[in-house]
Design goal:
alpha/beta; TIM Barrel; 16 strands; 19% strand; globular; binds iron/sulfur cluster
Length: 383
């Protein structure tokens, strides 16, 4: 897609709001401490970018961050009403998700969002263990997390997700299990359960390098993954993606489109966009993003054009994260691959021989033993 053309009607929309109450030491997203930030000025630029780049009538909208609920009620109202005026998302979208954190999700905010077209909240609980929350430097305790879920329900949200991080060095397997069982009592219909990772450049990675704590070893990590998977599936939540579980019909449509390697438009600093083999992204800094968008709202900080071979590899890499696996013919269509020979199928067959993939009803998918290795297996397809 020529980046000067707006995306086709219906394209999913991602909106990045980078402000947080406190920066978590493990965080690898583009986020900033909200104190002293010009949030209103930020919204001016965001709506300017939306006017130029946001698709009309998006099928799904996802407000991520950062912490979107860091915004005050009037700011949230301005954002949601302004975006609706520009895109008509309230009439068009099948799913509108806002990520929120317990310390800033109040009942009035939840009610406001519900009344302005948001129908799904993704709540960053991370853990109910006080020691783990302290290690993560989360500005909320377990009670606040439970209150946030309560507020979500009271405001009339039928759809919400609880986000968890397992594998903290502060947790024994028994703590993780006890935590999870307590959360399952809240009967969430969607849970995202990610293993803690130490991304280079984060404060937690630096502390690890300085040997300030002992991380979980590989056996502990595998035991966690196994136990979390079993407890969630026993509770009726199907692992539809490597780290995402839901009851039937409660999958996050916005993210499933991402794993299908579908098109999307992202607005806000650091937000990425994807359309027909072109990946582009915004500057990872508020001042640079604002300056760039004020000069040309369509401008991208980077733009990369992928040929069909690279797109085929990406489609498999992303698609293998899903329990449904990959249909080679669908992958070829997504990637625009027309040659008679399909190199991805050759790769998939080699992985079947290694016991990492299986072929069922025309779709290749990870074997249970390969689930913890999803990224490693998927990467075999990248060129
Ligand atoms: S709240 Fe989320 S986005 Fe903000 S610093 Fe923590 S992990 Fe990062």
């Amino acid at each position: 897609m020529d980046h000067h053309q707006p995306a086709p009607e219906g394209t999913p929309l991602y909106v990045h709001l980078p402000f947080c109450v406190h920066l978590c030491p493990y965080c690898d997203f583009f986020s900033v401490d909200g104190k002293g930030q010009d949030v209103d000025g930020f919204l001016d630029t965001l709506l300017l970018e939306a006017e130029a780049r946001a698709p009309k009538a998006p099928r799904t909208v996802f407000f991520g961050g950062g912490t979107p609920t860091y915004l005050s009620e009037p700011q949230l109202q301005r954002l949601l009403l302004g975006l609706d005026e520009l895109t008509g998302f309230r009439a068009s979208a099948e799913e509108v998700t806002v990520e929120c954190n317990p310390e800033s999700l109040t009942l009035p905010k939840a009610q406001l969002m519900r009344s302005l077209g948001v129908d799904r909240l993704s709540i960053g609980v991370q853990s109910l263990d006080p020691e783990t929350l302290a290690f993560f430097e989360r500005p909320h305790g377990p009670e606040q997390a439970l209150a946030a879920v309560e507020a979500t329900r009271s405001a009339g949200f039928e759809r919400f997700s609880i986000d968890l991080i397992h594998g903290s060095p502060t947790e024994e397997l028994a703590t993780t299990e006890r935590n999870l069982l307590q959360l399952l009592e809240l009967r969430p219909q969607h849970v995202s359960a990610y293993g803690l990772t130490y991304e280079p450049g984060t404060p937690l990675h630096a502390r690890l390098e300085r040997e300030e704590f002992v991380p979980q070893d590989e056996d502990q990590e595998l035991a966690n993954l196994d136990s979390v998977h079993r407890l969630l599936e026993d509770a009726g939540l199907r692992g539809y993606e490597v780290s995402n579980y839901s009851s039937i019909g409660q999958e996050c449509l916005h993210n499933v489109n991402y794993w299908h390697n579908g098109p999307y438009v992202g607005i806000g600093p650091s937000a990425a966009s994807h359309a027909q083999g072109t990946r582009s992204g915004n500057p990872r800094s508020i001042p640079r993003w604002r300056a760039a968008k004020q000069a040309d709202p369509m401008a991208a900080a980077f733009e990369e054009h992928l040929d069909p071979r690279a797109r085929l590899g990406e489609t498999w890499w992303l698609g293998l994260r899903l329990a449904e696996g990959v249909d080679p013919e669908v992958a070829r269509t997504t990637a625009g691959w027309v040659a008679a020979e399909d190199p991805a199928v050759g790769e998939a067959e080699a992985l079947v021989a290694e016991g990492l993939l299986e072929l069922l009803a025309g779709r290749y998918r990870l074997t249970p033993r390969a689930r913890p290795l999803a990224d490693h297996v998927g990467r075999q397809f990248l060129v």
